[in-house]
Specification:
The complex is a heterodimer of chains A (360) and B (307).
Chain A lengths: L2 H25 L4 E6 L9 H16 L3 E6 L6 H12 L4 E4 L5 H10 L4 E5 L8 E6 L1 H15 L4 E6 L4 H15 L6 E6 L6 H13 L4 E4 L5 H8 L3 E4 L12 E7 L2 H12 L7 E4 L6 E3 L7 H16 L9 E2 L5 E3 L7 H5 L8 E2 L4
Parallel strand pairs in A: 1-2, 1-3, 3-4, 4-5, 5-11, 6-7, 6-8, 7-15, 8-9, 9-10
Antiparallel strand pairs in A: 10-12, 13-14
Chain B lengths: L1 H30 L7 H19 L2 H25 L4 H19 L25 H5 L4 H19 L1 H11 L1 H7 L3 H27 L11 H11 L4 H24 L5 H20 L2 H7 L13
The chains are: A alpha/beta (360), B mainly alpha (307).
């Protein structure tokens, strides 16, 4: 290759590289492009399904002012970086990455695209153009625990966990705290399946927990299989992330329902208004981001108690993680009367006394 | 204690059945000299086809039949490529698995997250209520009984029938079999299609009984375990049964021990069945003679009639 040829290629490359910046202003008049990165299929009927419901709500709210795009089944890992970068390169101005494992890749891409806004769900690392948002799932777990505490005979609940990250640890602790508020000697047994979505394993874990004497099952994984397995054994259970009633109409007690739509609408509006800033949102019942599926298959007094629990958490009367809290070894972790601060809570890595089994 | 053991056994049976079904099919294919690494893909296509057909027609019988056909259809693609066009069996098998993964997601796109019909349990009045033996032996769904019947029939076919003898001859020395006048390629087609049909059956067991729904990649590596099982069993039907229940047991018990409170990292737990496969393979490969005695000598080798 001689020098002239080299310059020609170099010039072509530079022109191609500068193209995006030439094209971009042309898009400014069109609809705001908003991208979503999903972990599962939009039809997983759990985690990703609910995010997509939120995405559709936002699209319906803004009509042709906004154009949403999603990429589903994106594995947590290096592949996600390409997907996120691709969305940014295609002109999306606001990108929601909806799983914990996208955290580092979201931040990395955000550095390359400083004029694009990123929103990472369930993470804790932020940047000038990266916000984080999450739901206080543990509030729903507490309410589930209250219900279980009234219904259980064995005083033992089975909890199907995914990976022992703080969110799952909060969930287990909150469930038991709720359960113990009405059944002081209740215990919780858990199995981690090392995946967020593996129907076969989730079902097996449910069987194992039922075999070991748990008379109510709850899950922190995304498929309805545990609910189905419990139904087959005549055991009541809680759905996850979305109302799973149709999978077990006679045995689903309730489910945590994640409502992302309101948040998505608000953040898109912020971008449209030019008011978007990097924030950290952690919404519970009071924010409308979390709600409970209809309380079913339980006596009216239990239902009333559950509704009261929701109301108390919503009004701030019940903060859920309130001392005295002791861990499994009996060590006092939170003195009486104190409320756990969000920083400690979001990094929670110990289990309250009464949870059986160790985090490993 | 009795209750505990019963339910434990019932759960292990459920976890072992798909492995045994798929491995039985692969055993026949390999005995005829065909190494089909596409089991995982064939299972996935069987699972989704069975679920979709059952959902549309409302009949689990039709669903099961469709799954068998779908599995055999996948095996037919493999057979045409490797037996007629003489493509490399290992590469084609891997491609079949990758294809099956993508193709099953495509077929099942509109069926994710739908509550599926469940295969009915065969409840024989009186028998299922016998303490201990009742729940362990009776009250399962038809595919579980079928898995035993088919393995027994396979063993009988291989070692007690003339046709079985020919099939083994084709797997051991396709040139000799060809010289005597047996249609090597046709027999291999039949064996491979049987393997595909069984993988389809294993798949539909997953989507109609084990976790009655369709989810992408729901077979989750069980096809690979089935493949390893055939080697683990050193191509002998009885050991195939032992292996299937051993691996099914490991898969289930690795979750079970967590519940008892034995602190096992969940990542290790999910690696355990595969780790077990590797360990077993290492142990049995130390005994070269046993392998040579049972391994089909022409396994994986393409056959091209020269005369």
């Amino acid at each position: 290759m001689d020098r002239r040829q080299f310059h020609k290629i170099l010039g072509a490359g530079l022109a191609a590289a500068s193209l995006p910046s030439l094209i971009r202003p042309a898009f400014a008049d069109g609809p705001l492009q908003v991208g979503f990165v999903y972990l599962g299929p939009v039809g997983d009927f759990g985690w990703t399904y609910q995010h997509n419901v939120g995405c559709q709500q936002a699209q319906a709210h803004f009509g042709d002012k906004v154009k949403t795009t999603y990429v589903e089944n994106v594995p947590e890992g290096p592949d996600s970086e390409h997907v996120i970068a691709d969305l940014a390169a295609k002109g999306n101005k606001l990108i929601f990455t909806t799983s914990f494992g996208y955290m580092n890749y979201t931040l990395k891409v955000a550095k390359q695209y400083p004029d694009v806004f990123f929103e990472h769900c369930t993470g804790y690392m932020r940047d000038k153009n990266v916000s984080t948002y999450n739901i206080r799932f543990y509030q729903g777990r507490y309410v589930q625990g209250v219900i279980d505490g009234k219904l259980t005979k064995s005083g033992l609940v089975g909890y199907i966990g995914s990976i022992p990250v703080p969110e799952v640890v909060q969930g287990m602790n909150a469930f038991l705290l709720g359960m113990r508020s009405v059944y002081p000697t209740a215990k919780l047994k858990f199995i981690m399946i090392n995946s967020w979505y593996d129907p076969g394993k989730e079902g097996d874990a449910a069987k194992a927990l039922i075999d070991q004497g748990c008379d109510v099952i709850t899950q922190h994984t995304d498929s309805p299989t545990p609910l189905q397995t419990a139904k087959a054994r005549g055991i009541k259970a809680f759905g996850e992330a979305t109302d799973m009633t149709k999978f077990a109409p006679e045995t689903q007690l309730t489910a945590d329902v994640n409502d992302w739509g309101g948040y998505y609408i608000k953040r898109i509006q912020d971008v449209l208004d030019g008011k978007w800033t990097s924030t950290d949102t952690w919404g519970g019942f009071d924010s409308g981001m979390l709600s409970m599926a209809p309380f079913a298959n339980m006596p009216d007094d239990v239902k009333a108690l559950a509704e009261q629990a929701v109301a108390d958490i919503k009004s701030g009367k019940n903060k859920v993680f309130v001392g005295p809290l002791t861990d499994q070894s009996g060590k006092l972790q939170l003195p009486a009367g104190q409320v756990m601060d969000d920083g400690t809570l979001s990094g929670l890595q110990w289990l309250v006394e009464g949870v059986e089994g160790k985090l490993s | 204690m009795m209750f505990f053991l019963t339910s434990l056994l019932v759960s292990v049976i459920a976890a072992s059945t798909p492995l045994m079904l798929a491995a039985t099919g692969e055993l026949i294919a390999e005995k005829a000299g065909v190494l089909n690494l596409g089991v995982e893909g064939m299972m996935l296509v069987g699972a989704v086809t069975g679920f979709v057909v059952t959902h549309i027609t409302g009949s689990t019988t039709l669903g099961i039949l469709a799954a068998i056909l779908a599995g055999a259809g996948m095996a037919l693609i493999f057979s045409v490529l490797t037996l007629t066009i003489l493509a490399n069996q290992i590469a084609t098998g891997l491609a079949l698995t990758l294809f099956g993964k993508g193709f099953s997601s495509l077929l099942g796109r509109n069926y994710v997250g739908i509550a599926g019909p469940t295969l009915p349990k065969l409840d024989i009045p009186g028998l299922s209520t016998i303490p201990f033996l009742g729940p362990v032996l009776f009250g399962h769904d038809v595919l579980i009984y079928l898995s035993f019947a088919l393995l027994a029939a396979t063993a009988w076919f291989l070692y007690r029938t003339h046709a079985g003898l020919i099939l083994r001859a084709v797997g051991d020395s396709h040139n000799a079999a060809h010289a005597i006048g047996y249609p090597v390629i046709r027999i291999r087609y039949a064996a491979t299609l049987f393997g595909g049909a069984m993988a389809g059956l294993a798949g539909v067991y997953m989507s109609l009984s084990y976790s009655p729904m369709w989810a992408e990649d729901m077979v989750a590596g069980r096809g690979w375990i089935a493949l390893a099982l055939v080697v683990f069993a050193a191509w002998r039907p009885f050991w195939l049964f032992v292996g299937a229940y051993l691996f099914g047991g490991i898969m289930y018990l690795s979750l079970y021990v967590q519940g008892i409170g034995i602190p096992v990292p969940s990542a290790l737990v999910s690696a355990l069945p595969y780790l077990g496969t590797i360990v077993v393979l290492v142990i049995i490969s130390r005994d070269r003679r046993r392998i040579r005695l049972n391994q089909p000598a022409s396994l994986g080798k393409p056959f091209h009639a020269t005369a």
